[in-house]
Amino acid sequence: KRCSENSASDPTPFDTATLPTSWSVNKECDWDWIWAIRSADVLRKLGGGASLDSLDHALPVRIRPWLYLSDCRNVRRLGCLKSLGITHVLNMVHPDLNHDVPYHLANISRCDLEAEDDEESDDDEEQQILHEHLARAMQFMEGARSGGGRVVVHCVAGINRSGVVVAAALMILEGMSVLRAVAHCRRLRGHDRFLCNRKFQRELVGLAREIGALGARPGEEGSVVPQRAPDFQDRRPLRPPPI
Question: Is the model's pLDDT at 197 over the cut of 90?
C-alpha cells in the first residue's frame, strides 16, 4: 500500500473507528440482495430499463459531485482530470500501473491499494477486498470530500475492484442502501457487468447488513426491487452477461 499526499489542502482524516473491522458472509441469509445485484435485469429497471451493453460511458464518469469512477487508461489523461477538478486518484490495482503518470505535477494526490479480482475460488475467506482495503480507501476518499476536492477511483476496467469500493462509499458516506448504490453506479458506469464479481457482491451485501444499509428485502414493502427472489435452494447459477 502506498499513498502520497501532494495536494495543497490537508483534509480531515476519516475516522476508521466508525467502520466495522470484520463481518460475516452468509450466502443464504443475504441471498435476496445478492440475487438482485447478480441479475442484470432486476436492477436495470431502477435505471430506466434499458440494456447497458452498448452504453459504456466515457470515463471518468461522475458518480457523485465529489466521486468519479474510471478505468486505468483514462486516469492517465491529466488534462481531463484537471478539467474535472480531480484532486485525488485512488488506484485499486498494482502500484506499478500508471506509475509513470506525474500526478504530483498536477497537484493530485495518489493512493495505491493493491487488490485482486479473481473469483475462481468459492472460499469467502479468500480475496476479501473490503475487509483488507475499505478502511484506507475510505480515509483517502473522505479526505478528498471533506477537503472540498474530488476523487476518482479506478482499477483496470472500472467495473469490479473500483466498483465495489465506490458502491461501499455511497453506502457509508451517502447513506444509500446497497441495491440503490449498485443500481446508481451501474447506470452511470453504463455497463451491465458493473460489479459482476460474485465474491465482491457477497462481501458488499455482508457489509450492508453490518452497517444497516440492506434496505427492505426485495419483494417487500419499501424495497427498490418489487419482485421476490427465488428460494435459495432453487437458485440457478446467474452468470454476468458476456462482454
Answer: yes
